[in-house]
Amino acid sequence: MSRPRHFTDLSKVSATDLRAMLDDAVARKGRLKAGERSQPLDGKVLAMIFDKPSTRTRISFDVGMRQLGGETIMLTGTEMQLGRSESIADTAKVLSRYVDAIMIRTTAHERLLELTEHATVPVINGLTDDTHPCQLMADVMTYEEHRGPVKGKTFAWTGDGNNVLHSLLEASARFSFNLNVAVPEGSEPAEKFIDWSKRNGGAISFTRSAEEAVTGADCVVTDCWVSMGQEHRARGHNVFLPYQVNAALMKYAKPDALFMHCLPAHRGEEVTDEVIDGPNSVVFDEAENRLHAQKAVLAWCLGA
Ligand code: CP
Ligand code: NVA
């Protein structure tokens, strides 16, 4: 049997396929807005497992699947036998007998990889401690919707070196944009994501200064200071305050620079109201584009 098409990480899918998915997402969005309906996933079922909370991911996958003609089953790890130590391998084999694809949001990335190892249906990464590839598909789509091709543009990340940054590092190589990163000491992204990006043509630079990272940027991106499940390593706000995206920091970027945030936002912490509610913020377009981008991911995984 041929291996299913898993969507685990941007580094595991070719740049050509990722670009084709974004083209498909834009086309699907256009057709939806024009009132056209097509249901290529009629009869297909997506199981979704959430080991962490979610608003956007769960609703956009659910609605996306319905718009494509399919159905979903929403599960949490704790209500399954997974929570009573049934193995991921056995869970993967059982679910593969019932459903056509599995989306999982979980803690350790290894749990996702173990699922892909044993599932005979496609597995989609809905966020792990390490990465959040669906978010970056929506983010690149959103940038291009507002400003045209992302190739050669400069993104700036300021804040914590977390899962979203890891996928942004991979995206910078896959979609050929420059990335300036500013994180406080002790919050650096994992070396393996930096190495992979550099090996694959990523033009990335690191600094401790948010102002330096943001200077001349076409897009400024940030995220929460404490990710889900990372509360034990929460650090004082004074460590992150110099990395807050506020109006003063945005002045260092290009005048038409976009502001992005995957949401949920912690207003007054990583971003101020004036920026997130300001004219250059596209955070709700990003949230909407999760739906369109993930429909393209689902169609790619399921060959629709
Ligand atoms: N951005 C994002 O993944 O949001 P949720 O945690 O609400 O799914
Ligand atoms: N870095 C955040 C992203 C939330 C969508 C987290 O993992 O909690």
TrEMBL record:
Residues 5-145 form the Aspartate/ornithine carbamoyltransferase carbamoyl-P binding domain. It catalyses: carbamoyl phosphate + L-ornithine = L-citrulline + phosphate + H(+). Reversibly catalyzes the transfer of the carbamoyl group from carbamoyl phosphate (CP) to the N(epsilon) atom of ornithine (ORN) to produce L-citrulline. Belongs to the aspartate/ornithine carbamoyltransferase superfamily. OTCase family. Pathway: Amino-acid biosynthesis; L-arginine biosynthesis; L-arginine from L-ornithine and carbamoyl phosphate: step 1/3. L-ornithine binds at residues 163, 223, 227-228. Keywords: Cytoplasm, Transferase. GO terms for cellular component: cytoplasm. Residues 151-301 form the Aspartate/ornithine carbamoyltransferase Asp/Orn-binding domain. Its EC number is 2.1.3.3. Carbamoyl phosphate binds at residues 54-57, 81, 105, 132-135, 262-263, 290. InterPro entries: Asp/Orn_carbamoyltranf_P-bd, Asp/Orn_carbamoylTrfase, Asp/Orn_carbamoylTrfase_sf, Asp_carbamoyltransf_Asp/Orn-bd, Orn/put_carbamltrans, OTCase_ArgI. GO terms for biological process: citrulline biosynthetic process; L-arginine biosynthetic process via ornithine. Pfam families: OTCace, OTCace_N. One of its GO terms (molecular function) is ornithine carbamoyltransferase activity. This is Ornithine carbamoyltransferase. It is found in: Cytoplasm.
